[in-house]
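Retry 2 of 3 after timeout on previous attempt. Resubmitting structure tokens to design endpoint.
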């Protein structure tokens, strides 16, 4: 699991050092050796070692300079110095560079092992912290895309705790593998490690959907050349996958968003671009802006604002009919397939922006199925679109009216939202009640009355569905999956899963149900 780099200008010393290190003892997945600081620096750019053991005195670039340069590209690398010199200035520099150990030559194996165990332990903590942050970010982005309570202050607080507040440029890419054999599965694993090619100023978050598709959220603090860099990253990785596995990948990308909480709209744009790409099949990458949907004479900005102004709890059928007449009748615009698709996306975006103010998710209006899965090419003609538009506006208004008038229903929805956002860490039902500032007994009674099931049963169903998805779409081991859905003990998870699904986790994973 851990990578070690040994640096010494004396080849004999390198071989001696290498002979003292047993990879199995330290869980080492790779060891590289080199005889100069310049060579070590180049190796670090690709190899990314967790621990560097370096001679402190070398020609051209000594161990101290090497440490400083490596820290600029890999700040979490751990260092151990070796030297023939018992020099106070060297000791002082080692302390200033936060070096874990300073070993004198000839190396005593026991001292090297002790220092290496210390370095690996520190590297392990860094890796676990980084992996934990990445997993937390992935879970959070899933919530932003599919949460039932987008208006919750919790979301803003969580974004801050995950160090996401400084990012203000976002592009969502949806990629699909056109081949459905074992090569595609291998390629999927490859694309699921985008971090290895992304530049440090651009952070990718990988969101697997199924065995043939994946979403990638690219984030950056800098807007300069952001979209061009994302395109370059995707195209390069697409070529690597095809060259290595003969698997073709096509991608659709959203426009650049400036707000983390606009991800649902970006997802619809990415899906529209991918849908167009799948229809053309002559491009690896299509951006939403390239579909040329916005070249129509139709005034989408004004339409978006008009929908937002119209939607309210007391909206009437007469107002909806009047709105449709004003927007579309007498308009000389030709409503082709592209324009209908853009009208659909614009309507969804405007409706979502209003629902956000009430803390309501779009899926409440469209049903339990995620609205992001609705086809953007769903209308054969303008008549079908206007019928859908009228129904959506009236349903949304009715929902807003009922939502405001039923505080108990609102409490149930907030409970559901909290469960979906926190199911991996919820320790008790009392915790949920405390977070929602209500008594446990009141929450339990209201939830059972409105939904007909207990809160525990609902939490269990969410965890089981999440586990089943992970079992069939990721390469995690069973213990990792158990932990990710809220179970610290695998045996207990296995018992619960088997009882709930009638099949063990391993059997479910193997059959791909």
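Retry 2 succeeded. Sequence:
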């Amino acid at each position: 699991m851990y990578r070690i780099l040994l640096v010494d200008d004396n080849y004999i010393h390198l071989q001696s050092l290498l002979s003292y290190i047993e990879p199995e003892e330290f869980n080492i997945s790779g060891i590289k050796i080199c005889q100069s600081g310049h060579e070590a620096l180049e190796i670090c750019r690709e190899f990314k070692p967790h621990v560097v053991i370096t001679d402190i005195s070398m020609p051209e670039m000594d161990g101290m300079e090497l440490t400083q340069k490596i820290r600029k590209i890999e700040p979490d690398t751990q260092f151990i110095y070796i030297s023939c010199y018992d020099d106070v200035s060297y000791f002082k520099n080692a302390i200033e560079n936060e070096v874990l150990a300073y070993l004198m030559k000839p190396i005593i194996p026991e001292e090297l092992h002790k220092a290496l165990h210390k370095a690996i332990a520190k590297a392990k903590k860094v890796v676990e912290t980084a992996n934990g942050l990445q997993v937390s970010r992935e879970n959070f982005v899933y919530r932003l895309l599919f949460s039932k309570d987008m208006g919750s202050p919790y979301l803003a607080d969580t974004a801050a705790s995950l160090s996401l507040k400084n990012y203000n440029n976002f592009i969502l890419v949806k990629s699909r593998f056109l081949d459905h054999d074992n090569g595609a599965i291998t390629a999927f694993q490859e694309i699921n490690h985008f971090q290895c090619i992304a530049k440090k100023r651009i952070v990718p978050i990988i969101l697997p959907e199924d065995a043939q598709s994946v979403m990638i959220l690219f984030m950056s603090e800098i807007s300069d050349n952001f979209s061009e860099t994302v395109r370059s990253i995707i195209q390069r990785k697409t070529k690597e996958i095809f060259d290595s596995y003969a698997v073709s990948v096509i991608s659709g990308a959203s426009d650049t968003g400036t707000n983390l909480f606009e991800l649902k709209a970006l997802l619809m744009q990415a899906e529209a671009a991918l849908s167009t790409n799948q229809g053309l099949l002559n491009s690896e990458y299509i951006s939403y802006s390239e579909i040329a949907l916005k070249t129509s004479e139709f005034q989408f900005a004004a339409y978006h604002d008009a929908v937002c102004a119209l939607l309210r709890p007391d909206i009437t059928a007469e107002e909806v009919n009047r709105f449709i007449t004003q927007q579309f009748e007498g308009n000389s615009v030709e409503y082709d397939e592209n324009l209908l698709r853009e009208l659909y996306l614009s309507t969804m975006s405007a409706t979502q922006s209003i629902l956000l103010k009430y803390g309501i998710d779009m899926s409440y209006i469209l049903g339990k199925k995620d609205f992001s899965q609705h086809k953007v090419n769903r209308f054969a003609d303008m008549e079908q679109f206007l019928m859908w538009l009228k129904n959506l506006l009236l349903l949304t208004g009715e929902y807003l009216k009922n939502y405001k008038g039923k505080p108990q229903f609102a409490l149930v929805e907030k409970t559901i939202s909290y469960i979906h956002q926190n199911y991996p860490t919820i320790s008790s039902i009392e915790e949920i009640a405390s977070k929602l500032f209500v008594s446990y007994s009141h929450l339990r009674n209201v939830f059972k009355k409105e939904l007909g099931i207990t809160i525990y049963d609902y939490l269990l169903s969410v965890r089981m569905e999440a586990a089943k998805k992970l079992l069939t779409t990721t390469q995690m081991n069973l213990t990792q999956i158990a932990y990710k859905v809220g179970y610290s003990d695998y045996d207990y998870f296995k018992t619960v899963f088997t009882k709930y699904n009638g099949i063990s986790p391993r059997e479910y994973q193997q059959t791909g149900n």
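Attempt log closed. The chain is about 55% helix and 10% strand.
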